[in-house]
TrEMBL record, chain A:
Gene that this sequence comes from: yjfF
Keywords assigned: Cell membrane, Membrane, Transmembrane, Transmembrane helix
InterPro entries: ABC_transp_permease
Localization (cell): Cell membrane
Matches recorded under Pfam families: BPD_transp_2
Membrane topology: Multi-pass membrane protein
Protein name: Sugar ABC transporter permease YjfF
Automatic annotation (TrEMBL), chain C:
UniProt GO molecular function: ATP binding
Claim: Nucleotide-binding is one of the keywords in the record: yes
Pfam families in the cross-refs: ABC_tran
Lineage, top ranks: Bacteria, Bacillati, Actinomycetota, Actinomycetes, Cryptosporangiales
Cross-referenced PROSITE patterns: ABC_TRANSPORTER_1, ABC_TRANSPORTER_2
Organism: Cryptosporangium japonicum
Keywords tagged on the record: ATP-binding, Nucleotide-binding, Repeat, Transport
Parts forming coiled coils: none
Name recorded for this polypeptide: Sugar ABC transporter ATP-binding protein
InterPro entries per record: AAA+_ATPase, ABC_carbohydrate_import_ATPase, ABC_transporter-like_ATP-bd, ABC_transporter-like_CS, P-loop_NTPase
Domain ABC transporter residue range list: 12-247, 266-509
Automatic annotation (TrEMBL), chain D:
InterPro entries: ABC_transp_permease
Keyword terms: Cell membrane, Membrane, Transmembrane, Transmembrane helix
Domain of life: Bacteria
Protein's UniProt name: ABC transporter permease
Membrane-spanning residues: 12-36, 56-89, 101-121, 127-148, 169-191, 222-241, 253-272, 279-299
Record's subcellular location: Cell membrane
Main location: membrane
Length: 337, 306, 516, 355
């Protein structure tokens, strides 16, 4: 065996090495989504009268405030490499609890607090089961889906109307600026989105979420608080879903155990359309906002189209979704691997 | 001009009435028949119909109504997905001076000025009719009358109401007992599956009450597979009176059907014209509905549209 | 057994440590002592239990028996986080970082510089760039870690661990893909830390490195401690026999073996000829011909493009330009399958993500490539599988020798052997091996070198990549030198070619005048 | 104890226990639950119902298993069921003689081909275009039901065809035809995956796509095959489903079956992250879910409690199945009994390592 030279005999050449991809490819999916969203909006304007009114765009925010809220929580979960199927049910449970308590004459702020706490607790339980007992997120949150809706049905199988003063005024309230209107719900959702984006980019919790999603095992070995991050992510998602319930019950002042069926898919779709990888670790909150807007815009286009029969509505949604995703894929496509 | 004598159709200068209709969805054959009826009678009545499908989501329905308000239609009609939570958007319609007609399902708003009228069936009454027929029919019966009930989707208004109406009516006869009551989700497949299991768990059952025809039709398959005769060994009462149900009724496989007609298009169009003309209409209009025995079904079947 | 005279109390003391995995006793009654200010080498064959000892210590695995004392206090960590908080910073064997985060983040995540709770990205980038420069690395710290080669990732992991100024630093095979100068950078840092009083655990299969840097060592064999020695008091030969439990004589054999001359080989049929092949951002146009029975070694520094070149030849990455011909046919390379159809095999340097499939068993991993080329409809009969698998488990001494073990549960070195076996059973005409001896112990390494030499003697062509230049020199007939993602020279491995000569070529670059 | 250990550790042990428990619990509500009689020349009884009733789910879960093994997911199965049922029933209902066997076979053939096409559509989107599976199949989930409704015009299409009815509700040799069909498809799948190398290659692609590609596996083709197979399975399930009720319900057929199917797969021990899969496990999972449903009916669990009941069963089952849970909750208690004694150095075990 020859000895390894411990001292390089020749002066080591200085090489600017391994400088890779000049453009930061991380932003490509989000940018592409943004551009395609613009294109879609343009198509809407070209085809439908009155579509160009900026208020139409703001209405998308107003109409989808709850979905955005839910999708924000979902973004954290998906970034961490998990999935949360329980959000739609937790949202429904939130509306039912709120409606029932309000009917019993509780203070609206206490009610909101209780709803949020319940949502967070459900999320916490799911996160704990997933992390500490090594249960697949899909299953744990599917059980959560059954559980939350089950509790909601237990509380009331009938839809409960909300007549609380605070609720109804918040529902009708519109924040005016420069001739445009936003609902308080939309404002809350937007503020939450900004806060979440900042949290993802500028807090340890946010970065840990990415790390856990990239490779949970490595994150553990790097000494990151994987347990805390995982549990917190699901707690956050539960909290967001419950908040979504509150916002939803502002817009449609009812507590109904059947609301939000399939909303988990909408939320997941919004997140994934926004360029976030379902396998975790890669994506941005801005993408999620765009994803929600895309889904909302599709819905708006259908309303403007106006004459679609029920089944054509579905086919039309699928078609638009397909066109969008296909284009997005083509735009962001790099080499085949 | 079917558009009628009213040159005063608000907003539109062509005098034609524009109606925005926000449908619940296309969750059942009943619903699609309802949609068809509305579309066809709108055409026949010369009313321009803007139609949207909410896919069972209240939020979508609210969105659709808002967009009808924005488009300044002459009249808005909709079948609420659920009863509560409509005050806000109805207020908006009222502020825009657009009359609203509810179809099929009611809303629970205290302020009834928010809508002009509600046309539709009374689900509680339907349940009651079913129950009353059973009480009548059981008079002759010696032994206990053991009922299996196939409920509609848990939490849905028709399911809740048809259950409670039925329960009220059968109180009249202590012989009648509901031995099992299960969610059959309004579908044939579920109706069959649930019935298969219940027949084995409750061999003593001799009556089936299904919240709609479809579940009843599924249950018939299960009953036949169990070697019993539907309509004889097990008497069957259902609600809806769709064509398939009526066929089974005329064949003697069902004993009694309470009609819940989806064909309220013509009535709706009439009302719309009156409302747009500013005429006062009844707050609550029941759809013209009846009940069918086996003989009546044989007679009615040839004219059955759906 | 050379007992050290403890000048002070050990900072870390493990006594009677035991760890059992289902079917395998990984550690049994192992004692281990670590003193401040020393570099302590942990030695042993593949599967001896080195990594397990480290994982048991840092709480990755629950400990089955024994005790751990840190600074005289009994401790038991629930995980790396706790261990880190207690002052133990670890680089685990396989690179365990997050490929989806930037280089800077990978260094700082969990301890990012913050102000008012918000991460200061700019400061983080600056500090990580500085830190890497201290290791003589000039990287774009905003790029994703995953876009860098394994070697660079290894350096980043080291930078991270070193910067977590701890009392104990554990490095599990940090040098396995590093070239000599990188190793030297690392050693400089280690010496500095040692002077500062840090205790360092160092695992390596490069005996020379161990003798260069370590003060004492603990030798493990089959999960048991053989002994604890002062490095200065234990000659290499004795160390090797302590590790493997017998004398080693294979290495000498190889040295003596007569190699056919390049000229003679070039008479033979070219197996693969690449002409003007290039890929944007990866490697400049190059031409390379490999003949039957020829071993071509690739030499170059980290990131010089060796891996890229190899990947292009296997069509793991698609070439933008140039032509490939096998024998006399020019072939358009559509993917690894095309290459495999023409008898090319490629064992990746990145064994964990591009090599073995951890979830599958040893048997399944070994037959995978052969099966893939046969297509799914023609399964390899079980008897034939057993025959092949048993043969290579024996030949490469894969442990545990149970073909139904999940590969993920194998030690790093044994995984590498499985990967190699996968390709050897396909009986390729050209075997491309990127760092095939990474993390492999001395005995097995000699065995693999012998095997490669023998196979090339039988007519197989080999493209050999290794960070260890000596190894390249020992095996190759021809050495292709890369620099800066460009093939700069192809040298016949004659007597006058040695490590210095190659380093000189790398340094001067344009020996063939292709440079502009 | 030690001889039982391997059985207890088998990954299907807990689902099997749950299945047995559920079945036995039915005895409380229906005394002759286990009775199987011959009635009208065929087997009749709750167990037969469960088997027959679970066939659509078994089939869908079977296709889903292979998709999930490649680390994918197929949300569109419910829509495929609806479309296939709609097309088959429409064609049968248009026959001059609905009882003509050839006519029914032709309709079935068209429907099956259609299911393959739908599977191919998903496969192309995932494998060739490279769209994330959940989104790729979401398109068909949303649009497919629209298509099914378009075909049926939103109505329920009735057929009165005894050959067609045989598929889902008929019997052959006293056994339900649906069970025979499902068993045949499962057997073919098992043979294809375990007697050829297909299973190994799928598992490899699912666990590590990069490593598989570099081992020369044509992952794309495999992925495509797997989605086509899933489409096929859903298609057959659609035939059984619609034949069972002699009608096509474009609105409701197969709604939400994807969730049950995924649940069955996961209960059966296949991880959603891909890799190792167990067809037997999925079949067991599907039967378990059907048994759970039937138990709910038999036990008379009121509608408003069903979801809670399901949630509890799923949680308990998952926890029982999770080795981590068992060691964390019961392991500590068990371990504390014998004082922590490490393996004695002289034990024969080290020899194993050296072997
Ligand atoms: N998670 C595990 N499950 C089962 N067996 C394991 C596991 N981890 C390690 N082993 C076994 O424990 C033994 C020791 O492995 P370890 O990784 O400690 O070896 P090592 O000395 O680090 O080897 P190398 O030099 O190849 O890295 C091996 O036989 C290995 O197969
Ligand atoms: N286009 C690409 N996309 C993603 N990864 C790439 C790409 N090109 C190269 N790589 C990765 O970069 C690594 C090669 O980096 P590097 O330039 O350091 O090669 P090298 O000369 O072989 O270095 P080393 O000496 O470490 O082997 C490979 O592991 C390869 O997977
Ligand atoms: Mg190791
Ligand atoms: Mg390399």
């Amino acid at each position: 065996m020859t000895t390894v030279t411990t001292q390089p005999p020749v002066e080591r050449p200085k090489i600017a090495r391994s400088r890779r991809y000049a453009v930061n490819t991380r932003y490509v999916p989000v940018l592409a989504t943004l551009v395609l969203f613009g294109v879609m909006y343009g198509i809407g304007i070209a085809n439908y009268e009155g579509f160009s009114d900026t208020q139409v765009l703001l209405n998308v925010f107003i109409d989808n405030a709850h979905l955005l809220t839910v999708a924000i929580g979902m973004t954290f979960v998906i970034l961490s490499g998990g999935i949360d199927l329980s959000v739609g049910s937790v949202l429904a449970l939130g509306t039912v609890i709120a409606a029932t308590l309000l009917k019993a004459g509780w203070n609206p702020f206490v009610v909101i607090l209780i709803v949020l706490v319940v949502g967070a607790l459900i999320g916490l339980a799911q996160g704990a089961i997933i992390h500490f007992f090594d249960i697949q997120p899909f299953i744990a949150t599917l059980a959560g889906l059954f559980l939350a809706r089950g509790i909601a049905q237990l509380i009331s199988t009938k839809a409960v109307g909300i007549t609380d003063e605070f609720w109804t005024t918040t529902a009708t309230e519109r924040i005016h600026f420069g001739g445009f209107r936003l609902s308080p719900s939309a404002l809350i959702a937007i503020v939450l989105a900004i806060a979440a984006a900042l949290a993802l980019a500028y807090t340890r919790f946010g970065r840990n979420t990415y790390a856990v999603g990239g490779n949970a095992q490595s994150a553990e070995l790097m000494g990151l608080p994987v347990a805390r991050t995982r549990v917190l992510v699901y707690t956050l998602s539960g909290l967001c879903a419950a908040l979504g319930g509150v916002l939803y019950s502002f817009e449609t002042p009812t507590g109904n155990s059947l609301t939000g069926t399939g909303m988990e898919l909408d939320a997941i779709a919004a997140v994934v359309i926004g360029g976030t990888l379902l396998s975790g670790g890669s994506g941005f909150l801005a993408g999620t906002v765009l994803g929600v807007l895309v889904l909302g815009l599709i819905q708006t286009m259908i309303t403007f189209q106006g004459t679609l029969s029920s089944w054509w509505t579905r086919i039309f949604i699928a078609g638009l979704l397909f066109a969008f995703i296909l284009l997005q894929r083509i735009v962001t496509r790099r080499e085949p691997t | 001009g079917c558009g009628g004598d009213s040159g005063s159709g608000s907003g539109n200068d062509d005098g034609k009435i524009t109606m925005g209709f926000a449908q619940v969805g296309a969750e059942s054959g009943w619903r699609t028949a309802n949609t068809k009826s509305i579309q066809e009678s709108a055409k026949a009545a010369g009313i321009e119909l803007k139609f949207s499908d909410a896919q069972q989501k209240q939020e979508n329905q609210i969105k659709a109504i808002r967009s009808y308000i924005a488009q300044k239609v002459d009249v808005i009609a909709f079948s609420p997905v659920i009863e509560s939570g409509w005050d806000q958007v109805l207020k908006e319609a009222k502020d825009a001076e657009i009359p609203v007609i509810l179809t099929d399902r009611a809303v629970d708003s205290k302020d009834t000025s928010l809508y002009e009228t509600f046309i539709g069936s009374d689900f509680v009454l339907e349940g009651k009719k079913a129950g009353e027929w059973l009480v009548e029919d059981s008079k002759a019966a010696k032994g206990p009358v053991n009922v299996i009930q196939l409920e509609g989707t848990t939490g849905a208004a028709p399911a809740n109401d048809r259950k409670s109406g039925f329960a009220d009516a059968i109180k009249a006869d202590p012989k009648i007992k509901v031995v099992a009551s299960q969610d059959g989700d309004f579908t044939r497949a579920k109706g069959k599956e649930v019935m298969e299991a219940l027949l084995k768990a409750h061999p003593e059952a001799n009556v089936l009450y299904a919240h709609n025809d479809d579940m009843g039709l599924g249950a018939i398959e299960a009953i036949e597979a169990a070697g019993k005769k539907p309509g004889v060994d097990i008497k069957i009462v259902t609600v809806d009176a769709v064509k398939d149900g009526m066929t089974a009724l005329s064949e003697g496989k069902i004993n009694f059907i309470v009609e819940c007609s989806p064909l309220l298009g013509p009535q709706l169009m009439d009302l719309a014209k009156q409302v747009v003309d500013g005429k006062k209409v009844e707050k609550r209009i029941l759809t013209e509905e009846t009940t069918f025995t086996q003989e009546q079904a044989k007679a009615a079947l040839p004219d059955r549209k759906y | 057994m050379g007992e050290p005279t403890p000048a002070q109390e050990p900072i870390l003391e493990m006594t009677g440590v035991g760890k059992v995995f289902p079917g395998v006793v990984a550690l049994a009654d192992v004692d281990f002592r670590l003193y401040p200010g020393e570099v302590h080498a942990l030695m042993g064959e593949n599967g001896a239990g080195k990594s397990t000892l480290i994982k048991v210590l840092t709480g990755v695995y629950d400990i089955d028996a024994g005790s751990i004392r840190l600074n005289g206090e009994d401790v038991r960590f629930s995980g790396p986080l706790q261990a880190q908080r207690a002052g133990i910073s670890t680089v685990y064997q396989e690179v365990n970082l997050c490929p989806n985060l930037s280089v800077a983040e990978n260094i700082f995540i969990g301890r990012e510089p913050r102000r008012f709770g918000a991460i200061q990205w700019r400061r983080m980038r600056r500090r990580s760039a500085e830190l890497l420069r201290g290791l003589d690395l000039d990287l774009d710290v905003t790029a994703l870690l995953g876009s860098y080669s394994i070697a660079i990732q290894q350096m980043v992991a080291i930078a991270r661990a070193v910067d977590i100024s701890a009392k104990v630093l554990i490095l599990d095979e940090p040098t396995s893909s590093l070239d000599a100068s990188e190793v030297e950078q690392l050693f400089a840092v280690m010496r500095r830390l040692k002077r500062e009083g840090l205790a360092i655990v160092f695992v390596s299969h490069f005996l020379d490195q161990v003798y260069d840097i370590a003060d004492r060592m603990t030798v493990l064999r089959n999960g048991k401690r053989v002994g604890e020695y002062r490095v200065a008091e234990l000659p290499q030969a004795q160390l090797v026999s302590a590790m493997i439990g017998k004398e080693l004589a294979v290495l000498e054999e190889l040295e003596e073996q007569e190699k056919p001359s390049t000229a003679a080989l070039e008479q033979g049929e070219p197996v693969l000829a690449a002409t003007g092949v290039a890929r944007k951002g990866a490697i400049e146009p190059f031409s390379l011909t490999i003949h039957q029975g020829e071993v071509v070694g690739l030499a170059g520094l980290l990131g010089s493009g060796r891996t890229e070149l190899a990947r292009l030849l296997f069509a793991a990455d698609k070439a933008d330009q140039g032509t490939f011909s096998f024998g006399t046919d020019t072939v358009s390379m559509r993917g690894p399958r095309t290459a495999m159809e023409h008898g090319v095999a490629f064992s990746s340097e990145n064994r964990r993500t591009e090599g073995v499939v951890g979830e599958l068993t040893v048997r399944e991993n070994i037959v995978l490539a052969l099966q893939a080329s046969r297509g799914w409809a023609r399964p390899i009969p079980r008897g034939r599988q057993d025959e092949l698998v048993d043969k290579y488990i024996k030949a490469l001494d894969i442990r545990p020798a149970n073909p139904d073990t999940q590969v993920r549960n194998l030690s790093g070195g044994n995984q590498q052997k499985v990967l190699l076996a996968r390709w050897l059973i396909t009986e390729p005409k050209l075997l491309i091996v990127d760092e095939p001896t990474r993390g492999i112990d001395v005995g097995a390494k000699a065995e693999i070198q012998r095997l490669l030499a023998q196979l090339s003697g039988d007519g197989m062509a080999v493209l050999f990549i290794s960070a260890e230049l000596e190894e390249v020199l020992r095996l190759s007939h021809k050495i292709a030198v890369l620099r800066d993602r460009r093939l700069v020279e192809q040298l016949d491995n004659t007597d006058d070619v040695d490590v210095d000569r190659i380093l000189a070529t790398i340094a001067s670059g344009s020996a063939t005048g292709e440079d502009s | 104890m030690s001889r039982l250990a391997p059985i207890v550790r088998h990954r299907l042990f807990w689902p099997a226990v749950a299945l047995v428990l559920l079945l036995v619990s039915n005895l409380f509500f229906s005394a002759d639950f286990f009775a199987v009689r011959i009635k009208d020349g065929h087997l009749y009884g709750s167990l037969v119902d469960i088997l027959r009733g679970s066939t659509p789910l078994v089939l869908v879960a079977l296709g889903m298993t292979l998709v999930i093994a490649t680390a994918g997911i197929d949300l569109s199965v419910g829509s495929v069921i609806a479309i296939v049922g709609a097309v088959a029933c429409l064609r049968v209902s248009e026959l001059d003689d609905q009882n003509s066997v050839t006519g029914v076979l032709a309709a079935v053939a068209v429907a099956v081909v259609l299911s393959l096409v739908l599977g191919l559509w998903n496969g192309v989107l995932v494998a060739a275009v490279g769209i994330q599976p959940i989104i790729a199949t979401l398109i068909l989930l949303v649009g497919g039901r629209g298509i099914a409704q378009l075909i049926t015009d939103g109505q329920i299409i009735n057929v009165r065809s005894s050959p067609y009815r045989t598929i889902g509700a008929g019997y052959a040799l006293t056994i339900p035809v649906a069970v025979i069909i499902a068993a045949a498809v499962v057997a073919v799948a098992v043979l294809l995956t375990r007697r050829t190398a297909l299973g190994l290659l799928i598992e490899s692609v699912g666990s590590s796509p990069t490593a598989s590609r570099l081992a020369g596996i044509q992952a794309r083709r495999l992925t495509l095959i797997v989605y086509v197979f899933s489409g096929f399975c859903a298609g057959v399930a659609g035939l059984i489903y619609s034949s069972n009720i002699s009608s096509a319900d474009g609105n409701n057929a197969g709604a939400l079956i994807e969730l049950d199917a995924i649940l069955a797969v996961v209960i059966g021990g296949t991880a959603l992250t891909g890799g190792r899969f167990s067809i037997a496990g999925s079949v067991l999972g599907a039967v378990l879910i059907q048994t759970l449903n039937i138990t709910i009916y038999t036990a008379g669990v009121p509608g408003r409690f069903t979801l809670l009941f399901k949630a509890v069963v799923v949680v308990v089952l998952c926890l029982a199945q999770s080795p981590t849970f068992r060691t964390k909750v019961f392991g500590r208690w068990r371990r504390s009994k014998p004082p922590t004694a490490g393996p004695t150095p002289g034990a024969p075990a080290p020899a194993e390592v050296a072997a």
